[in-house]
Design brief:
Elements: E1 3-6, E2 11-22, H1 31-43, E3 47-48, E4 52-63, E5 67-68, E6 74-85, E7 92-101, E8 104-109, E9 112-117, E10 125-128, E11 133-136, E12 142-143, E13 148-158, E14 163-168, E15 175-176
Parallel strand pairs: 9-14
Antiparallel strand pairs: 1-2, 2-6, 3-4, 4-6, 5-6, 7-8, 7-13, 8-9, 10-11, 11-12, 13-14, 13-15
């Protein structure tokens, strides 16, 4: 069971559950603190295909009763709230260009990898192999590695542990951010 609460367009506050295993040496008065630390280290920065990238755990809602297994480890069901980053088709995002080639360019929006095809770049821009960039006809706009661009998500592909996106910089207010 999952509950979504809208924070902004691409960030959501989500109630999630995870089972944590704890070694017997951590049993004692600081066990709750150990479980919370373990939760933060295991889930923050990871991606679940269904919910997106887990940015931060905001609260631990409940830690269930532990159950021992045959090895002595204890398993705890933990429910927690986390802010997740999940891009959707049609969203406008600011990104940093990481790679440019004749097929288009790759950019990053935080943990999200985005590809912008040359077909989704304005027609007045062309690839310059000498400088490895996309440049406008009047040479006023040049998209190179580490450029900041504003793009529109055209589609996403969700895998078990990763999300990829295809985007466009053709449109009003899209493209290089000066």
């Amino acid at each position: 069971r999952f509950f979504f609460f809208l924070v902004t367009a691409m960030f959501f506050l989500v109630l999630l559950e995870r089972q944590l295993r704890l070694h017997p040496r951590y049993f004692g008065p600081c066990m709750r603190q150990t479980l919370v630390s373990k939760l933060h280290s295991e889930v923050e920065g990871t991606c679940t295909g269904r919910h997106g990238f887990i940015v931060v755990v905001t609260a631990v809602e409940k830690i269930g009763m532990g159950s021992l297994d045959e090895t002595g480890y204890s398993s705890f069901d933990v429910s927690y709230r986390a802010i997740v980053f999940r891009p959707f088709k049609g969203e406008i995002l600011d990104a940093v260009v990481t790679n440019v080639n004749k097929m288009g360019f790759m950019a990053e929006v935080g943990p999200l990898q985005v590809f912008v095809s040359k077909l989704l770049i304005p027609a007045d821009m062309s690839f310059d192999a000498n400088e490895n960039c996309f440049i406008s006809e009047d040479e006023a706009i040049k998209i190179i590695k580490d450029s900041d661009v504003r793009l529109k998500i055209m589609g996403t592909r969700v895998e078990a542990m990763e999300i990829f996106a295809i985007a466009s910089i053709s449109g009003d207010y899209l493209g290089l951010i000066s």
